[in-house]
What does this fold into?
Amino acid sequence: MDNLQELLHGFTVAVTAPHLVLMVIGVLLGILVGVLPGLGAPNGVSLLLPLTFGMQPVSAIILLSSMYWGALFGGSVTSILFNIPGEPSSVATTFDGYPMARDGRPTTALATAFGSAAFGALVGVILITFLASWVAQVALAFGPPEYFAVYFLAFASFVGMGGAAPIKTVVALAIGFAIAAIGIDTVSGSVRLTMGIDELVKGVNFVVAVMGLFGIGELLVAVEEEFHARAVSSTIDWREVFRAVGRLPRHGVALLRSAAIGCWMGITPGGPTAASFMSYGIARRFSRRGRHFGTGEIEGIISPETADHAAGTSALLPMLSLGIPGSATAAVMMGGLMIWGLNPGPMLFVDNKDFVWGLIASMYVGNIVAVALVLLTVPVFAALMRIPFVVIAPLIVIICVVGAYSVSNSYLDVVLMLGFGVVGYLFKKLFYPLAPLVLAIVIGDKAEDAFRQSMLMSKGSLGIFFANGLVTSLVVAGIALLLLPLALQLVHLLRKPGSTTAETDKEKAII
Amino acid sequence: MISRRALELLTAILTGSFGVAVVVSSLDNGIGWSSEGVDPGTFPFLTGVIIVLGSLYNLVRGVLPPVTLASVPIAITRTELRRLAGLFVPAAIFVAAIPLAGMYLAAAGYVFAVLAVPRHQSLPRALTMAAATSLALYVVFERMFQVTLPHGALAAALGL
It folds into this structure.
């Protein structure tokens, strides 16, 4: 219970009036950069960094981490309202969040997302508080084979081989892998698949692909269907915000399961993106209403959001305890730590107790501040849905264009983004699934690198994936998840022959 | 009017040619096993082959539509096509105009054209919205977060 005492001490450091003001400022700025695709937490943190040089380290890290919370929350807003995920980790939120918002329930969708995100973050912080040292050890046990196994698990849980048009799924997945491979190969250093275009050396950024596939593609589908003004209630309904949050405990199983997946993926450096996809995939498979996923299911929003934030929070731990930044934002923050005269790493917990526990305490408070602020803004964001389509459509196009450009200041990215828009439209029209494509773009490259590094270590033997308990159990779990739907389908087929075709048709209609 | 069959064929050909490009391009990187481990071209090569095979399958399925597909022979009707073009063509022109006019001018012109030409909004309102869009972009990106958006060849020629 040493930790508990330290934490209480941390609260006395973190909860002061100036710090609360800093949190509010940080969270609001974070929401702004999170909502705007193309800008993200790294932009915001690097912008604020120079301002923090004169501050106490605790105050500085509180400002920066609050900004990070705000950006995590803000990223879900555009995913839900316009189908444009601002960050890789909020892609899975679009699958059910956007249909629900389009259905005329944007307030419910946003409030559900924020509520479950807050729960996930809370579980992540609790984990950090009590298991800091143990968690650090787990992270150290991860080498290339384990990395690959984690990515494999994420793929396996998400990409079921059942469902409609399996060959289209395979093609979409393979295209994603190919796109991920474009650019410099990190293992050998050679340039791949640039097809003679020099600018492609930097690769195709995920944001560029997603803005096109989801943002522009969805616009094209919507305009074709003549986007009628939906029945969004014109009065701002505050009560719905609280009702939606109040309904969350009913989905306790989904919340806990997703938080567990998120923490696990955050500690093992699978990261928030893999966590949210995996959580969504598992929820779809095990939820009683799994077959309605994709049409605006509550649990389809809860699962990715909870896992995303649980992973995002617990991923800060490797940064503090090992000095390994888990993300671009963490890397910038770590630069800050060093400028303030602190050395991230195991000794931080010994030398700067005030700082570490002040930060952990501020995570509790900062998340509460963030969720309160963000829930207050729900009706404002929901009101965006009432802007007529003719006005909002060009604005979405501009946001996608600016977002694609600002990723790496490249005009080619803008053109690519538009091309992805056409592909997204065609794929949607013909029932090619977009999710496996995006998942492959996001983690395909890392998975390939991990696989090849393991092959180098083992001199070509696949035995390395069964070399120790950790990696074996990960691989076996992945294979089991991959084969489960096939096995279930076989059982189904044997029991009542003839009923499966009707089901695939239904699925086709949903996708 | 575009039939479902034509659209399926078009998409399969599109994915298939991407697959072929991937296969050809990855051969340059070397495939197989060398002293440096798995060669960099191996995985792209395999994914390329999978894409090509899958596209061929989809192509054949597209030519011989099974019963379920036959029930929706028309994928995009004439009106739908017009609406699609109404959104996509201005957007493409906007993107094409960026290198010359810069992001701010192109965005303002785009918003103005889309709102004012089909008479969705009155002229003054369309003008205001166009100006507001560019101004908001400038304040948020260039000023607040110091992300430079392209100013365009025109601005450069004028010495801005």
Remarks:
- Chain B touches chain A through 68 residues (CB under 8 Å).
